[in-house]
């Protein structure tokens, strides 16, 4: 699988070229601590390996040679931080036969450049904000530009991004597994919810299932009750829920590096008020209609227009607004994003949807004056001519939610 992906990328390179992709390393958190490491998603996509300080190298001068540089095993360090990936294990995962140690990378690179007529070097460079620290790819490319001005530096990032947009069967299978675990965890969370609980207690019932399954969250869980639900990225999760509160829970699971991203909004006491039900039905209608229209040929921008039309008409009937431009007071995000190795995966709102793409559908309404925020989010696979809702088993109908929470 990983070899096939690499072949698609390396076949697109110009003659007399090298490709260098770094797995990355975790940023320092404090004097003696680092943030949790996640490999550069493109490196993982090409090799299947989630280890820091690894390097993938390809050149098409030496008979299409592939190399993988790994950290040299250190028995003393293993007693402190755990097992290093061994050479045979790296070969088995990546299907790369030539494995060397990272301490030899610089010598290899200099020797290759000296002995071969390399004209192009490709790096995977993500264009982050200008105040982000330089990546390894950016640092080494700057050095090479100074020392070898005749070599052209290229960015392979967009080509890998384009390939990642279309999911294969294995990627869909892993995403579905993440969604299924999310479903089980949401059920546990809803069943055990009641008025007076703190938001973090409700999250704890969600996390219980994740811990039991040996998986982690795909992002910081949002559990926003009452007036907190109008804040899109509310993550404090420290308020006490009140009777008649809705709680908006935006959450997900990471399973073997693939992510789910689901939002459900439910009454902590198990019963929607009449007003909550009215607003919920508008959001649910938008959710269903956008899913219905999620098919090849559409763009995320067009899907958002569909959502906005339904939300506007609904808000108008609810007496919230009169003019379409007022909708931004109650709906201030887009209805969809791509999903995959990243929760907000590669791709923009103008890309035409194709078979094999994974997207979210997440309309919402946030009414500050009433302290009501509602979002309903599903994970959708684009098939040959329609949408397949991978999260269809996660309850979202009013009667199903009330029945699940009913005490």
Walk me through the structure:
- The protein has 407 residues and is an alpha+beta fold.
- The chain folds into 2 domains: 2-164, Creatinase/prolidase N-terminal domain (Creatine Amidinohydrolase, Chain A, domain 1), CATH 3.40.350.10; 166-405, Creatine Amidinohydrolase (Alpha-Beta Complex).
- It is built from 12 helices and 19 strands.
- The chain has helices at residues 2-10, 41-47, 75-81, 87-94, 105-115, 136-147, 157-165, 169-191, 199-213, 274-292, 300-317, 398-405, and strands at 17-22, 28-30, 33-34, 55-59, 65-70, 99-101, 120-123, 152-155, 216-217, 222-225, 246-251, 253-255, 258-259, 262-267, 358-361, 364-367, 372-375, 378-382, 387-389.
- The strands form 6 sheets. The chain has a 6-stranded mixed beta sheet, sandwiched between helices. A 3-stranded antiparallel beta sheet has the order 9-12-13. Strands 10-11-14 form a 3-stranded antiparallel beta sheet.
- Strand 7, helix 6 (136-147) and strand 8 (152-155) form a beta-alpha-beta unit.
- Helix 8 (169-191) crosses helix 9 and helix 10 (274-292) runs antiparallel to helix 11.
- It is elongated.
- The model has no long low-confidence stretch (mean pLDDT 93).
């Amino acid at each position: 699988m990983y070899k096939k992906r690499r072949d698609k990328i390396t076949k697109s390179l110009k003659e007399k070229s090298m490709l260098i992709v770094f797995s990355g390393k975790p940023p320092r958190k404090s004097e003696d601590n680092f943030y949790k490491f996640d490999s550069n998603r493109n490196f993982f996509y090409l090799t299947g390996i989630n280890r820091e300080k690894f390097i993938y190298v390809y050149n098409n001068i030496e008979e299409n040679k592939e190399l993988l540089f790994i950290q040299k095993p250190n028995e003393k360090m293993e007693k402190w931080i755990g097992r290093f990936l061994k050479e045979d294990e790296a070969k088995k995962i990546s299907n790369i036969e030539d494995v060397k140690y990272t301490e030899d990378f610089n010598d290899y690179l200099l020797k290759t450049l000296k002995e071969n007529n390399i004209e192009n070097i490709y790096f995977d460079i993500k264009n982050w904000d200008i105040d982000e620290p330089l990546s390894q790819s950016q640092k080494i490319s700057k050095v090479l530009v100074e020392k070898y001005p005749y070599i052209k530096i290229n960015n392979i990032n967009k080509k890998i991004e384009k390939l990642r947009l279309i999911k294969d069967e294995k990627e869909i299978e892993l995403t579905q597994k993440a969604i299924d675990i999310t479903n089980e965890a949401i059920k546990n969370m809803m069943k055990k919810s009641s008025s007076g609980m703190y938001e973090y207690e409700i999250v704890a019932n969600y996390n219980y299932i994740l811990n039991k399954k040996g998986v982690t969250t795909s992002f910081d869980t949002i559990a926003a009750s009452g007036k907190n639900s109008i804040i899109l990225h509310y993550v404090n999760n420290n308020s006490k829920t009140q009777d008649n509160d809705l709680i908006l829970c935006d959450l997900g699971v990471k399973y073997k590096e693939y992510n789910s991203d689901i939002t459900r909004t439910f009454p902590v006491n198990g019963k929607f008020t009449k007003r909550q039900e009215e607003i919920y039905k508008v959001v649910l209608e938008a959710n269903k209609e956008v899913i219905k229209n999620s098919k090849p040929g559409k763009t995320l921008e067009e899907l958002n227009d569909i959502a906005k039309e339904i939300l506007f008409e609904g808000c108008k009937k609810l007496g919230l607004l009169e003019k379409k431009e007022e909708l931004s007071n109650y709906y201030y995000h887009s209805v969809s994003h791509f999903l995959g190795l990243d929760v907000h995966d590669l791709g923009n709102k103008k890309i035409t949807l194709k078979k094999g793409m994974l997207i979210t559908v997440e309309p919402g309404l946030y009414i500050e004056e009433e302290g009501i925020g509602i979002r309903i989010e599903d994970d959708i696979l684009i098939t040959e001519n329609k949408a397949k809702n991978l999260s269809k088993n996660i309850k979202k109908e009013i009667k199903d939610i009330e029945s699940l929470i009913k005490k």
